[in-house]
Amino acid sequence: MSRRNAAIFAAVLLAIAAGAMALAGANPLAGFAALLRGALGGERQLSETLVQTTALLFPSLAVAFAFRAGLFNIGAEGQLIVGGLFAGLAGAALVAPGWIAIPVILLAGAAGGAFWGGIAGALRARFGGNEVIATLMLNIVAALLANYLVVGPFHAPAATGPETAELPVSSWLPVLIPGTRLTISLLLALALAGALSFMFARTVFGYALQAAGEAPQAAARAGIDLRRTALVALTLSGAIAGFGGATLVAGVLHRFNVALSPGYGFIAIAVALVGGLDPLWIVLAAFAFGILQSGSLTMQALAHVPKDVVGFVEGLAILGLSARRIANPREESA
Amino acid sequence: MAELLDFFQLALVKATPLIFAALAGVICERSGILNIALEGGLTVGAFTGAAVSFETGNPLLGLIAGMLAGALLCGLLGVAATRFGVDQIVAGIGLNMLAAGATAFAVVVLFGAPGATPEVHALGSAGETALIAVAVVAALALQLGFDRTPWGLRLRACGENPQAVLSAGLDPRRIRVLATLAGGAIAGLGGVFLSLGELDLYSDGMTAGRGFIALAAVIFGRWTPLGAAGAALAFGALSALQFVLQRSGVPSELMQALPYLAALAALTGIVGKARAPAADGVSL
């Protein structure tokens, strides 16, 4: 999308959002003002926006990782949930000093996400099964699995909600700004974005992934194993999303709850597309969507605009961005 | 005996929206449009049906409006995929989010409180039974139409080899748009069954992933109308079985997960090779 078209597109989205606010009987200017005030109006608001940014950044990078390899991972949501589940179970069971416990919890999350993404990857690599359908189905299975485990066998006896026991305080991620929920997970997410950007630009592995995505036939002729790429890409993509789930568990909720994600894995698709699948631009896009996420409740409270207008506009954004070609048809057996 | 009859009745009620959505999925996919937005089609159908019935007091008008809403949403996917060459999967996800956001928004704006519409005039038990019958007849009719009519052949050709359709002097884009419109209307009818047949109101999230179960049914039914409807019926029976097994200790989540697990198994091809139409999901 050219810069001009992008500006027109953004203007159209804003106009539609304004129209929706007017339809709800609110003054659109007041609506936007409340949204921005709720997201950026002070230290507390800004830190909460950065919490949302971080939560979106991990699955967005996961989605972009798979997209760049020509694979549709629309299962970031499920991978995030399974990652969070693994992290929550490990974290509640583990009694160890923080410098041991925290890495273990985060790695458990990455392992959970890798496992979930790897199922789709294996189906794709071994049987040529469509990863779109596989990840879509696995999202729902993940939610059901989490619900079963957390309401059933791993339900915290003292907890009222569907959640696991609380992590020991020593296992919580260190906060960046005292008195807020913003933790070092933001720095981890930014570091990951940088690392992925380097990987795609400068490493053979990154090059091979993109070659498999952009020109599968040529890549196959050049000796890149497309089946293996599919398995590796979806597994690593899942690991990133799962790691993000673990940071929510260890940094924000301090336990696994079935309501861990309000759809971060789906919004991530919009974030990844807005960021043009470039890890560094995705950081900016995640911040923009973080503003929407954290400001929407203030908008509802102050300007009486139903917060659902955000989901509606995000859906429109995804629809508009779907014009970008992502995956080329590929034939593993060839 | 009476219990068995109750069970079958419940299974049919649970299966009906799935059958409608699965048939919608078959029509779209056989034409070459992988329609992830079935869930959105159900959602807008259910909401529009209830809202129009509330405003007019006439559930039949609600039914028609619900079908139109479904056709509009899925037709948007058809137009986007054929005229703008968009990625069907991404567009479908966007439409699902749009449908969920727009309906939740409209519930607040139109009815003043979030979450659900007030009770509306529903189709009643006669209407519910009629819609169940329509679902079954539609599956049979579609199968016949697919196998025996020229438009069925064209639709299938469009999903397998759109170039050939073009060579035969027909416009595959037009056929695909028509398929998404027809499929969307049927998905909308499935939504109407939820809000005006099984219940008498719309509430946010009431479709509860049925559009995705329908996608599973399409795969499991190997992209044929009768196969998909049969799979939808089996999934409906599973869902009815949950109520029976509630106190037996079988986790209800496992029962709910079975359709999705079945679809994953179908993807492996172990249970018989399932092959999607060659041009399924390939934008023109």
Mean pLDDT of chain A: 91
The 3D shape of chain A can be described as globular
| Outline of chain B | globular
Can you write the helix and strand succession of chain A as a string?
HHHHHHHHHHHHH
CATH topology of chain B: ABC transporter involved in vitamin B12 uptake, BtuC
Total number of distinct structural domains of chain B: 1
Strand content of chain B: under 5%
Number of strands of chain B: 0
* Proportion of helical residues of chain A: over 70%
Biggest sheet layout of chain B: none
CATH architecture group name of chain B: Orthogonal Bundle
* Helical residues, percent of chain B: over 70%
- The low-pLDDT segments of chain A are 326-334
Domains counted in the coordinates of chain A: how many?
1
- Poorly predicted tracts of residues of chain B: none
Write the layout of secondary structure elements.
The complex is a heterodimer of chains A (334) and B (284).
Chain A: H1 3-23, H2 28-40, H3 43-68, H4 76-93, H5 98-127, H6 131-151, H7 185-202, H8 204-214, H9 216-221, H10 226-253, H11 264-274, H12 279-303, H13 308-321
Helix pairs in contact in A: 1-2, 1-13, 2-3, 2-12, 3-7, 3-10, 3-11, 3-12, 4-5, 4-6, 4-10, 4-11, 5-6, 5-10, 7-8, 7-12, 11-12, 11-13
Chain B: H1 2-31, H2 38-56, H3 59-83, H4 88-111, H5 124-148, H6 150-160, H7 162-167, H8 172-198, H9 210-220, H10 225-244, H11 252-268
Helix pairs in contact in B: 1-2, 1-5, 1-6, 1-8, 1-9, 1-10, 2-3, 2-4, 2-8, 2-9, 3-4, 3-8, 5-6, 5-8, 9-10, 9-11, 10-11
